[in-house]
Amino acid sequence: MPLIDTHCHLDVAAFDDDRPAVLARARAAGVSRIVVPGITAEGWQGLLSLCEDEDGLYSALGLHPVFLDQHRPDDLRALETAIARHAPVAVGEIGLDFYLPALDVERQKALFEAQLHIARDAGLPVLLHVRKAHDDTLALLRRTRVTGGICHAFNGSQQQARQYIDLGFKLGFGGMLTYDRSHKLHRLARDLPLEALVLETDAPDMPPASHQGRRNSPEYLPEVLRALARLREEDAADITAQTTANAIELLKLT
User: Fold this and answer.
1) DSSP reduced 3-state for 129
2) pLDDT value at position 254?
3) Average pLDDT, the chain
4) By three-state DSSP, how is residue 201 classified?
5) How many domains does the chain have?
């Protein structure tokens, strides 16, 4: 069964020079479907056009917390309009980032909660960006009760993982799983139920160990798969089948 990259920013400028070649190599590597999350309202149209022009690409639309200063007051209304018009598979990338001290916490929370309400009303799952903010994120999710989603690049505790799973979320694992130093991630990958996991690259960021310091790419997703198979001591084909099924079910991919 082909792989699904559940989080890849294929629309950004880092891929402008060779996007068709990157896509061709990803497909040759067995990555047949890619979810492309939005970051700012300004970038949505290019993202949507890319996903409409290429088979196997699926759009998600959202306002990323790291780009807080780029979001305008009317972007939330624009998000509602774009969802109704273009039917993305999810609302994202949205969330909370308490790692970067320059980002206003209260503004982040207000933006995040507003987007959770939009996702809930649209019946869409969400793609979460969470750094140093899992407890606050979980509290808002319990209050809003969206239709599940993916906690992208999960790096929280076992207890937090179980709370996300209880709320209908999958947990995304990517290139950091391939590093020998990622002991906490390795434990999570071994211990969590496979039914709760999905694969991702977050390209062009977070490359696997074999490409450290270079641009990440969806063609490297099989490296994440192989790392997960080694850690769990399970057959890669079985992991492919389950993680692909998890993504299809959650995001209603065709």
Assistant:
1) strand
2) 83
3) 98
4) coil
5) 1
Backbone phi, psi, residue 116, to 5°? -65, -40
List the CATH number of the domain containing 35. Answer: 3.20.20.140
3-state secondary structure of 172: strand
> Whole-angstrom Cα distance, residue 178 to residue 180?
7
Distance CA 147, CA 167 (A): 9
The letter for the amino acid at 243 is: T
Span 13-37, average pLDDT: 98
Residue type, 226: R
| Under 8 Å between Cβ of 141 and 172 | no
For residue 88, the enclosing domain spans 3-251
Pairing label, strands 57-61, 90-97: parallel
CA distances from 200 to 1, 138, 185 (A): 16, 21, 14
What is the token pair recorded at 106?
A: 């209260």
As a whole number of angstroms, the distance between CA 158 and CA 184 comes to 10
